[in-house]
Amino acid sequence: MSATTIAPSSPDSPPTKRTPPANLARRRLVDRAVTGLIYVAIAIASVPLLLLVYFVAVKGAGQLSWSFLSEPLPVSARRSGGGIAPAIIGTLLTTLLAAVLAVPLGVLGAIYLNEYGKTSRTAALLRFLANVLAGVPSIVMGLFVYTIFVLRFQGGGRIAFAGALALACLMLPIIIRSTEEMLRLVPANLREASMALGASQSRTILTVVLPAALPGITSGSLLAVARAAGETAPVLFTIGFATQTNLNPFSGPNTTLAQFIFGNAGQPFPAAVDRAWGAAFTLIVLVLGLTVGARIISARYTVR
Amino acid sequence: MASVTVPQTARRGSVRVGDTAFRWLALASGMLVLIILALIVLSTTNQARPAFTHMGLDFFTSTRWAPAEDRFGALDFIYGTALISVLALVLAVPVSLALAIFLSEIAAPRARSGVVYAIDLLAAVPSVVWGLWGFIVLRSPLQTFYGWLSDVLAPIPLIGRLFEGGLRPELRHRRHRAGADDHPDHHLAVAEVMDTVPLAQKEAAWALGATRWEMIRGAILPYSKGGIIGAVVLGLGRAMGETIAVALVIGSSAQITARLFASGDALPSQIANQFNESEGLFRSALIALGVTLFLFTIIVNLVARAIIVRSTRHLKGVAL
């Protein structure tokens, strides 16, 4: 291709003589150099990731045993032994509760934006505010739930439900945005067909639009849940701290894996740091499971 | 769609009631976003008011943070937050751009999905785990490295002054951590932006005999500039709010130094590390730090949105 072009650098040469541009070698060199730089940048980016995976796998997986996963937290950080069962259960409980709060509301909100509001001013404003809410730092969510919920119940406010509220506030805008994207992909003629058969708009949404978008909504929600499961800052002030498994989200303090890692990483005792690695491994497996699950669902069921 | 005539049936009245009710339910759920944002502002500002009235404007202009004496000046933390997030961006942006170019222009489809999985993995690592890793693994080698660095640089007049009295190695840590932290989503967003470049423009560049890099520089980068800048500013907002990784590598010992360059801490990590040991006016001041952080991230986010909306109306469907 380049042989047929007239080189801009040599305008005097007769057009019949097909010479490659004089600077082609230099341009190719620049191209190669930039490509090389890009690969270097990617290598640099992957070094911390590989190191982290290595450390978590080596230090964390070594901690795993049935007793580590099933026993209550040690009373003293200094002592070895003990497990992380209350933190695992607390993480699942809090995240699940947050999902129960945030997913239906987020999906409904997205339904308003895409099916009713569309390009109206209200919808545009709400879309904008959802983006703003998504930018609120997680620690501010923690402070928010502390000021509006925990403070109202002197002493008794630090419960799993409070942590779930904070996580739900974080998840809500993510779910709204991903769900709206998915609803937008549903072809308009599905809606028209349903309406033409005499179905009301709500019936059309519930029985035609939502089922069509369900895989995408599920995977988007799973990603939001995965992110929430690893959050520390929102639960730090809202959930309290417990060493025993607490299955009641509405009474008594609780604990999560992320909070447990945060509390133990800074301890000067090797046993505590080891437990933090073990908890980190468990948490990553949990979060990664949700993420991969979301990818599989969206890859397998997405209608294009 | 609204003009479709629904045939008259016996149930029509109840259908219409249900239809309207559902519509209102959806609207109410959407409005929740507005309500939550309003409540965040009202509730946190209300709790922060004692500290704000106690300190007045000094809260933003003083560097003296001494809870025991009821002095709460947040300037150090504001400065620290800005410094850390900007440095994190400086580290993350070139890598992000490189990865995005790789994903959208260089990688074969199969390699592309592999890289996307790796980025997923990166995003799946909660920041508290990055903090744990930074705290345990990076600390001592970095301390040695920066000790050496400050020894080497100390004799140089101007730079030496900045490093006076030894570097606080923690500050360095934080840059590293925040840098590693802030990019995962970012890469994908930038790659998506680049994917929106019309094929015709790329083909035009190829047809003119451009090399790949010339095509990227001439066709892709100008076209995606607005989207990229927007994504970068959004990343800045996210890095500012990053709490836990930063809080961990700093540790909970709150050293307060008056000197600007050696200044202590970032806003969010300060809150995380001190909140549970605070009460009264001190706690109110920490919530005031939260309000300050909220304001800054909102401003940064609004700027990012404005950039994206203004310069890139063609980026439809990109999740930024």
Précis, in short:
The complex is a heterodimer of chains A (304) and B (320). By secondary structure, chain A is mostly helical. Chain A is built from 11 helices and no strands.
Category from helices, strands and their pairing of chain B = mainly alpha
Number of strands of chain A: 0
Mean pLDDT, all residues of chain B? 73
Multimer state: heterodimer
Q: Tell me the span between the first and last alpha carbons of chain B.
A: 30 Å
What class, by secondary structure content of chain A? mainly alpha
Number of helices of chain A: 11
| Poorly predicted spans of chain B | 155-184, 252-263
Number of strands of chain B: 2
Give average pLDDT of chain A, whole number: 85
* Uncertain parts of chain A: 1-7
How would you describe this structure to a colleague?
The complex is a heterodimer of chains A (304) and B (320). In chain A, 69% of the residues lie in helices and 0% in strands. Chain A has eleven helices and no strands. Mean pLDDT of chain A is 85; it is low at 1-7. The longest helix of chain B has 44 residues, at 12-55. In chain B, a hairpin with a 4-residue loop joins strand 1 (65-66) and strand 2 (71-72). Chain B has 320 residues and is mostly helical.
